[in-house]
Amino acid sequence: MSLFGNKKIKAFGLDISDSSIKVAELSLHKNHLTSAVFADVPLLDKTITNHMIVSEQRLAGNIMKALTTAKNIKSKFVVCSIPEAKSFVRVIHLPKIPLAEIEAAIPYELEQDIPIPIDQVYMDWFILRELPEKIELLVTASSKDYIDSLIATLKSIKLRPVALEIGSQATARALIGPEEATKSVLIVDIGAQQTSFIIVDKGLPLYTSSIPIAGNSFTESIARNMGIPKGEAEKLKSSHGLTSQTEGEELVRSAVLPILDNIIDEIKNVIRFFEDHSETKNVIDTIICCGGSAQVPGLIDYISTRINLGSGKTNLRVGQGNPWSKMISAQNHHLPLAPEKALGYTTVIGLALRGNDYETE
Ligand SMILES: Nc1ncnc2c1ncn2[C@@H]1O[C@H](COP(=O)(O)OP(=O)(O)OP(=O)(O)O)[C@@H](O)[C@H]1O
Ligand SMILES: [Mg+2]
Q1: E strand or H helix at 235, and its extent?
Q2: From atom 27 of ligand 1, which residue's Cα is the shortest distance away?
Q3: CA distance 8 to 16
Q4: Which CDD domains does the record match to this protein (predicted)?
Q5: Is 234 in the pocket of ligand 1 (CB under 6 A)?
Q6: Which H or E element spans position 207?
């Protein structure tokens, strides 16, 4: 707590991926959205490759470009995403020890659980539950290299990061409304290069993972199989997707399906892993899809059919996410983007939600 009390500031959301930069600033009065500004800049030059910042200068230039496009964002304060692939979210258990000793005990426990050396990550944690004989913690660890380079980039253009968070945590904030907050839900974020899987157990994002297969793989497969340029393949993907009435459309469908089947196999693995390992013994009954590629026509229905087929579960509900779920009283016609069109902005909406009325310490 500062001498003059906590100060409320407005921070905008900044979602950086290998393929794009998205910015958003939201203003809410209670749960009503009173204003929203968005912009999306594709990263065409080699700025970020395999989640590594290749050029801080180019990244800074592209962030400035996004802010210039979103003319109304004037704030210097920013809530920024960290890529899934540069972070680890783990549930760990410690014996009952005094609160002051937890910080020092975490590295020993976490070390066995993450694939990079412990001195190369920054950690953040909070207590999930106190059980009779142990303490359950949610720990996030993020690569120091990436974070240091990101902060240097933001500072070089006079932006002040007030919070950095793993993209999946922001995605969950945007999608988990009051109804989903009581369930165990799997969010599947199908982007351009990356599909992320986020298990949200009673409102808490507990497990996250990702695979490098997503919408761009659909486009490449269509282009390859049909011998057409990627631009044309992209159009066919958006207009027809998995719906097929003609022979040409059937070619699009058969190019996309093997890739989507890989994503579905991973959905099954993630669900199995959670249900076998979770201490709570909760069962996933809802899958929420988001990311730009969740708009591929027929994709949700196909996932629903495949996932329920022979799963032994009677009714795993698969649906499209609503990134405006927190804005419960906002009527759809007052939203700046229809829920379907907002799917690609889910993460940045979650970051901007944290930045709206951000309270400094
Ligand atoms: N209407 C649409 N129909 C089908 N696919 C679409 C549509 N609009 C966008 N996409 C696809 O969504 C993808 C971009 O999604 P998104 O904006 O969520 O990705 P990203 O967050 O920038 O990247 P990533 O999460 O992979 O790092 C692209 O592959 C694009 O082709
Ligand atoms: Mg994304």
Answers
A1: helix 230-239
A2: 17
A3: 25
A4: ASKHA_NBD_PilM
A5: yes
A6: strand 204-211
Pocket test for ligand 1, best of 197, 234, 293 (most atoms within 8 A of CB): 293
344-353 in b/e form (b: 16+ CB < 10 A) is bbbbbbbbbb
Q: Please report the domains of the chain, with CATH numbers, ordered by start residue.
A: 8-83+145-175+336-359 (3.30.420.40), 87-142 (3.30.1490.300), 195-320 (3.30.420.40)
Rounded to 10°, the helix 247-277/215-226 angle is 150
Which residues, in sequence order, are CB contacts of 206 under 8 Å at separation 6+? Answer: 89, 91, 138, 199, 200, 274, 278
Torsion of CA 305, 170, 208, 328, to 10 degrees: -40
pLDDT, residue 329, reads 46
Whose tokens are 């990702």? That residue is: 210
Does 173 contact ligand 1 (Cβ within 6 A)? no
HEC sequence for 1-24: CCCCCCCEECCEEEEECCCEEEEE
Q: What pLDDT does residue 1 have?
A: 40
Question: Which pLDDT score is estimated for 297?
Answer: 96
- For the chain (361 residues), the mean pLDDT of every run of 10, in chain order, is 66 96 91 87 90 95 95 92 90 91 92 90 92 91 96 97 94 92 95 95 90 97 97 96 85 96 97 87 93 97 91 81 77 73 96 86 62
Q: Hey, what are 181's tokens?
A: 């907050």
Do β-strands 12-16 and 8-9 pair in parallel, antiparallel, or remain unpaired? unpaired
Q: Is the dihedral of CA 291, 295, 299, 301 positive or negative?
A: positive
Ligand of minimum distance to the alpha carbon of 168: 2
Q: How far is CA 82 from CA 60, 191, 195, in A?
A: 16, 15, 15
Contact between 183 and 287 (Cβ < 8 Å): no
d(CA 218, CA 265): 16
pLDDT at res. 45? 79
User: What's the confidence (pLDDT) of residue 115?
Assistant: 86
